[in-house]
Design brief:
By secondary structure, this protein is an alpha+beta fold. It folds into two domains: 4-83, no CATH class; 106-344, Hypothetical protein af1432 (Orthogonal Bundle), CATH 1.10.3210.10. The protein contains 14 helices and eleven strands. The strands form two sheets. Strands 5, 6, 7, 8, 9, 10 and 11 form a seven-stranded antiparallel beta sheet that branches. It has a four-stranded antiparallel beta sheet with strand order 1-4-2-3, with no helix packed on it.
């Protein structure tokens, strides 16, 4: 079945989905492919000097398709809109307005890119602080816990300043990702979930400290096992499982860490059905805070495994929380995680209603179906890629999330999809 066909410029109709087949700099519209919604857009398309326009059948309104005549007029008869002045100074005010609006969108995209760079900078600065406190844990454990309290205090202050929660992705090169990045990601994700559940401030703080330190025992394990790319054998798995008790032993030297934080660290690999390690749930039941930490920990572990080849997309990781951990993780907190982090989480590759492909950069808890996205367009350099907050573009919506393998290597490189993922709180779009 034919998917598209050309129509002469005079037969354009409101409701047709068109492809201008022009580079981004050659037309005043935000996208080269779009559905015509008003007569003014037809008038502006005519001013581009095109003789024929490609129409995408599936995405066009049936009524608009029916209005196209079977016998089109000669193409050159309607190639260019007549000049009403007769002196070659056709009124282009509407066209100028479109170019102005496009420039405004470009300027807005630059604002989003600047904010994204600031978020990435805050993330990396915080990650360095986490690395420093981990190094201090052996030499000056009291100072390390004080540093952890300060890090969590700063994150809590940033989170408290937001009426709506904005979580942004940070692209990290493969060699840049380490245990401290994982700890920070888990902290951000768990505290995001805890805030959405109105967890008390003291509990939120203890949750953050536990997240920062939950894998601390891995620093005393053989690093060849900790950082092994590929599956661990049975002996290596047994060694890895000791990281929980070794972490608790390290923290036993610290007097000012709260028992509730130690409990979360002890239980972060213990499941609701009694499986997992190192023991059955403390007091016979996992605490609410432990359940929150577990959801965040498993999510980031799937997005950022030791072997980058085994990483799953954020969208798939969401699904696996349900399918792979039924009866093990608390389904209520998984549901709340999805509800507050978005159907299309940061790092998710999506297809938009105009057939564009984009990367979800950040999600706002008040507008989960309209995140900020980075649009793939090879006509624009990647470092100047168009960023759009879909809240501001009602004509655009997300059609579906794409899976790895459903997009080209060029798109992979353009959007940085081979990078590791960091998560941090961005600025609300109020």
């Amino acid at each position: 079945m034919k998917k598209s066909f050309y129509v002469p410029i005079n037969q354009l109709q409101v409701g047709l989905f068109v492809d201008l087949e022009l580079s981004w700099t050659e037309h005043p519209f935000l996208f080269s492919k779009f559905k015509i919604k008003q007569q003014d857009e037809i008038a502006q398309i005519r001013k581009l000097g095109l003789q024929k326009i490609l129409v995408i059948i599936k995405k066009s309104a049936p009524e608009a398709l029916r209005q196209i005549t079977d016998q089109p007029a000669e193409l050159d008869e309607f190639a260019i809109e007549p000049d009403p002045t007769g002196d070659g100074t056709q009124n282009n005010s509407d066209l100028d307005t479109l170019w102005t609006q496009k420039k405004q969108s470009i300027d807005k995209a630059e604002e989003y890119r600047k904010e994204r760079r600031k978020t990435a900078q805050r993330y990396r600065e915080t990650q360095k602080r986490v690395s420093n406190l981990v190094r201090n844990l052996r030499l000056a454990p009291a100072n390390a816990i004080r540093d952890a309290d300060e890090v969590i205090g700063d994150i809590s202050s940033l989170l408290a300043s937001q009426t709506n929660i904005v979580v942004s992705m940070v692209s990290l090169e493969a060699g840049e990702f380490n245990l401290q990045n994982h700890a920070l990601n888990v902290t951000v994700l768990a505290m995001m979930l805890a805030k959405s559940l109105d967890v008390a401030a003291d509990d939120m703080h203890n949750l953050g400290v536990a997240c920062i330190l939950h894998d601390i025992g891995k620093i005393v394990l053989p690093q060849g096992i900790v950082h092994k790319v590929g599956s661990l054998n049975a002996v290596e798995q047994d060694v890895m499982k000791t990281h929980v008790n070794k972490g608790l032993a390290l923290l036993s030297r610290v007097k000012n860490i709260e028992p509730v934080a130690l409990e979360m660290i002890a239980d972060h690999h213990v499941y609701l059905d009694g499986s997992g390690y190192p023991a059955a749930p403390r007091h016979g039941e996992l605490s609410v805070l432990s359940r929150i930490l577990q959801v965040a920990n498993h999510y980031d572990s799937m997005c950022n495994p030791n072997d980058p080849a085994l990483a799953v997309s954020p969208k798939i990781a969401m699904a696996k929380l349900f399918s792979n951990y039924e009866g093990k993780l608390d389904s209520y907190y998984i549901h709340q995680f999805v509800r507050n982090f978005g159907v299309y989480p940061p790092g998710c590759v999506v297809k938009l209603s105009d057939d564009s492909i984009a990367l979800v950069s950040s999600v706002d808890s008040d507008n989960l179906l309209a995140p900020t996205v980075i649009v793939y367009n090879p006509d624009i350099p990647a470092n100047q890629a168009l960023m759009l907050n879909l809240v501001d573009h009602e004509e655009l919506s997300i059609v579906q999330a794409l899976k790895p393998g459903e997009y080209s290597p060029e798109l992979n490189a353009y959007l940085g999809l081979e990078d590791r993922l960091g998560f941090f709180f961005g600025s609300p779009k109020n």
